[in-house]
């Protein structure tokens, strides 16, 4: 297999975040016209549609529309095309698709080119398979004409069209004598392969991004180099939302190698012949900040107490996010009720690759190189801050050294656009320090949650009230979508809709705006909503003298897929039968987020007052598992990610100033804390669900439930407190 192209050239079309035209979370199917938009074939090649180019040498180039940040989309996306086109995978080459939402947009993101929220495979699954099926029909039709036989007598296999007589033409042979028809064949879902006929999907296909990453040849955003390039470092306020009132840059300008000092609306940029020089000079700036931002009045302890108070105030109805049945009436008539209040802290993303962006301005045009999760957000940000017309913005998406939702937003692109605009013709690379990123991160929201569950005389759940107090994400990032939803902030509240058979279910959302930006994070909502739900379910089960596994199985009696993953993980962990070391206990949790079912069991002890997780078992049903080995890796990775957040991670603020600025004060999971992880992937004949975040939501509640089994103490805060 040829190595992936790590420095693709990307075109200019995109949705504009700044204009409010990007409405996240909308769903639609790509039209026949959109599928049929053919790109210009390569030299001597053939392009059956916009996703595929067949070279005369037999190499088939496939477009991958999603950002690759280690989750495997650079392999998964082309795999969908290759499956339906019946390609020989050894002859496949993968390139990043142009930034053109009309041709390559994700239906699960309203057609925008955004990678996140476990919607990549879900969104592209059918459009890419249809594109592959369409390309296969083009090849069959061309072969039929070349062979002089009916198309019905032809089949395809491994980049060949084969006649019933045994005669065959390779796709390369066809490309030499044919071109795509003016009107492409129509395709629909009924023409797609059933699971039993998959030749590539579900097999262990090597990831195309790994060789270049292993050898060091892979190009990330920070690796971008252009002739005459300069570097910039931007000083921002110590508190979010504040702006410079006066600037003394004399000392900074005197540093050798400094080329420019530029006042920005929100800070001061220093441009120099190296990043080190730019940062050194930046440290010489003397800036008086406004000190009038809303965040200046915020302290974490006060915020948390106020969120809890509001969550517990049942007179504050907030916004009805879910209203199934009459939960209030069922709770009032319940034989017994269980209530609990939960908190979670703001946490940072701490991506391994610092935020960075490179830009070059030529007249009224700008070209941008960005390790971003959304070309559409980059375009919108550059248009809004730089004043460029969208059609004059060319975005190149590079590999990402970690995303986790942080790189959906593109504030780092605003830096590059503004500085590059002030120095036309000169490429500018902006790099953030770790301190910059942690001070001006878009944190996972702080929450206060209050839940009340009621049971009847048989111990069956008859009603559930779930109240969430949190900052908004959509409310800040895409106000039009938030307004159109009636104030329902979907990322914040994700995970509150449950599969459990509780017909009377009420969820209420109370929004807060404290001037500290909350944003997308890995498993944003489910990371804390499932923590609250799954620990309370466990408490109810214990309270009615039921086994937590049996209790959940009964709640999932209408959902055999959910039951299946719980049964599988119970067998893996020997639930109820395992002979555990003294001082060890098992905890269980379940997640149904992103249309994927995940059961998880953990083995936990307590060491010096802290939970110690020894083993994690997980069974996952994500529908069609494109790459089972990669699914396993995603579960393993999200377990580590989730355990780090569950045990350690939190941001504290005093007068709006973050108290954690780097990894010396912001603790993450250490290698000696990592558990053994065992994963069972259970492919089923269902549309794929998300997988990149799936292992995170059940981890924290499973740990908390194990602790309760050990000592009876219910932990209701993230990160988990001392026990």
Task: Describe the model.
This protein is an alpha+beta fold and 723 residues long. The chain has three domains: 32-215, Aldehyde Oxidoreductase, domain 4 (2-Layer Sandwich), CATH 3.30.365; 221-292 and 355-431, Aldehyde oxidase/xanthine dehydrogenase, molybdopterin binding domain (Aldehyde Oxidoreductase, domain 4, 2-Layer Sandwich), CATH 3.30.365.10; 300-346 and 443-718, 2-Layer Sandwich (Aldehyde Oxidoreductase, domain 4), CATH 3.30.365. The strands form seven sheets. The protein has a seven-stranded mixed β-sheet with strand order 10-11-8-18-15-16-17. The chain has a six-stranded mixed β-sheet with strand order 13-21-20-19-14-28, sandwiched between helices. Strands 1-2-3-4 form a four-stranded mixed β-sheet. α2 runs parallel beside α4 (120-147), α11 (375-386) crosses α12 (411-422) and α17 (524-543) runs parallel beside α21.
The radius of gyration computed from the alpha-carbon positions, rounded to a whole number of angstroms, is 27 Å
The coarse overall form would be globular
Tell me the number of strands.
28
Determine the fraction of residues in helical runs and give it as a percent range. 25-40%
The DSSP helix count reads 21
Total separate domains: 3
**Percent in strands:** 15-25%
The level 1 CATH classification of the largest domain is Alpha Beta
CATH topology title of the largest domain: Aldehyde Oxidoreductase, domain 4
Largest sheet, described in full? 7 strands, mixed
What CATH architecture of the largest domain do you see? 2-Layer Sandwich
* Helix/strand class: alpha+beta
Instruction: Report the average pLDDT across residues.
Output: 93
CATH homologous superfamily label of the largest domain: Aldehyde oxidase/xanthine dehydrogenase, molybdopterin binding domain
Quaternary structure classification? single chain
For the largest sheet, list the strands in their spatial order.
10-11-8-18-15-16-17
């Amino acid at each position: 297999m040829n190595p992936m192209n790590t420095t693709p050239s990307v075109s200019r079309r995109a949705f504009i975040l700044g204009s409010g035209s990007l409405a996240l979370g909308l769903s639609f199917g790509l039209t026949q016209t959109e599928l049929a938009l053919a790109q210009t074939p390569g030299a001597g090649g053939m392009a059956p549609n916009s996703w595929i180019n067949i070279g005369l040498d037999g190499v088939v180039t496939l477009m991958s529309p999603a950002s690759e940040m280690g989750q495997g989309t650079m392999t998964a996306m082309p795999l969908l095309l290759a499956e339906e086109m019946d390609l020989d995978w050894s002859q496949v080459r993968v390139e990043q698709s142009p930034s053109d939402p009309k041709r390559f947009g994700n239906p699960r993101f309203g057609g925008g080119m955004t990678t996140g929220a476990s919607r990549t495979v879900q969104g592209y699954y059918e459009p890419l398979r249809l594109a592959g099926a369409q390309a296969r029909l083009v090849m069959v039709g061309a072969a039929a004409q070349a062979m002089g036989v009916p198309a019905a007598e032809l089949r395809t296999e491994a980049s060949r069209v084969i006649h019933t007589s045994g005669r065959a033409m390779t796709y390369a042979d066809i490309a030499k004598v044919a071109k795509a028809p003016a009107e492409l064949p129509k395709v629909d879902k009924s023409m797609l392969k059933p699971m039993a006929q998959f030749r590539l999907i579900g097999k262990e296909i090597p990831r195309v991004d790994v060789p270049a990453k292993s050898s060091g040849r892979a190009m990330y955003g920070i690796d971008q180099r252009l002739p005459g390039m300069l570097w910039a470092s931007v000083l921002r306020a110590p508190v979010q939302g504040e702006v410079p009132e006066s600037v003394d840059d004399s000392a900074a300008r005197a540093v050798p190698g400094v080329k420019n000092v530029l006042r920005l609306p929100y800070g001061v940029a220093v441009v120099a012949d190296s990043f080190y020089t730019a940062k050194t000079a930046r440290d010489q700036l003397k800036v008086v900040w406004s000190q009038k931002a809303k965040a200046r009045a915020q302290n974490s302890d006060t915020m948390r107490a106020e969120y809890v108070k509001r969550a517990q105030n049942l007179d504050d109805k907030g916004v009805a996010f879910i209203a199934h049945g009459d939960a209030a009436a069922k709770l009032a008539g319940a034989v017994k009720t269980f209530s609990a209040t939960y908190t979670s802290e703001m946490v940072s993303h701490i991506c391994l690759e610092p935020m960075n962006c490179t830009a070059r301005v030529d007249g009224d045009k700008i070209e941008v190189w960005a390790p971003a999760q959304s070309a559409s957000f980059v375009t919108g940000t550059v248009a809004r801050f730089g004043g460029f017309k969208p059609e004059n913005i060319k975005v190149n998406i590079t590999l990402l050294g970690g995303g986790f939702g942080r790189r959906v937003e593109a504030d780092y692109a605003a830096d590059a656009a503004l500085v590059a605009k002030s120095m036309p013709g000169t490429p500018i690379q902006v790099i953030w320090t770790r301190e910059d990123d942690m001070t001006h991160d878009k944190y996972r929201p702080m929450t206060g949650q209050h839940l009340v569950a009621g049971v009847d005389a048989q111990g069956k759940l008859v009603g559930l009230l779930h109240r969430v107090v949190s900052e908004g994400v959509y409310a800040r990032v895409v106000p039009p979508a938030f307004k159109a939803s009636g104030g329902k902030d979907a990322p914040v509240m994700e995970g509150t809709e449950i599969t459990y058979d509780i017909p009377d279910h009420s969820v209420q959302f109370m929004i807060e705006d404290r001037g500290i930006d909350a944003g997308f994070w890995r498993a944003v909502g489910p990371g804390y909503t499932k923590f609250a739900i799954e620990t309370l379910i466990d408490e109810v089960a214990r309270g009615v003298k039921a086994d937590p596994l049996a209790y959940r199985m009964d709640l999932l009696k209408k959902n055999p897929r959910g039951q299946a993953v719980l049964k599988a993980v119970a067998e893996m962990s020997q639930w109820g039968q395992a002979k555990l070391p003294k001082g060890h206990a098992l905890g269980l949790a379940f997640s149904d987020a992103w249309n994927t079912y995940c059961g998880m069991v953990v083995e936990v002890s307590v060491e010096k007052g802290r939970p110690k997780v020894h083993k994690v078992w997980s069974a996952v049903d994500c529908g069609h598992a494109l790459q089972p080995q990669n699914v396993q890796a995603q579960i393993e990775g999200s377990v580590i990610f989730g355990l780090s957040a569950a045990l350690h991670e939190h941001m504290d603020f005093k007068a709006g100033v973050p108290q954690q600025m780097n990894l010396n004060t912001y603790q993450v999971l250490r290698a000696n804390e990592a558990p053994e992880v065992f994963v069972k992937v259970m492919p089923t004949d269902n549309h794929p669900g998300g997988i990149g975040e799936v292992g995170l939501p059940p981890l924290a509640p499973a740990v908390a439930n194990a602790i309760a089994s050990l000592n009876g103490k219910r932990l209701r805060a993230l990160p988990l407190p001392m026990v």
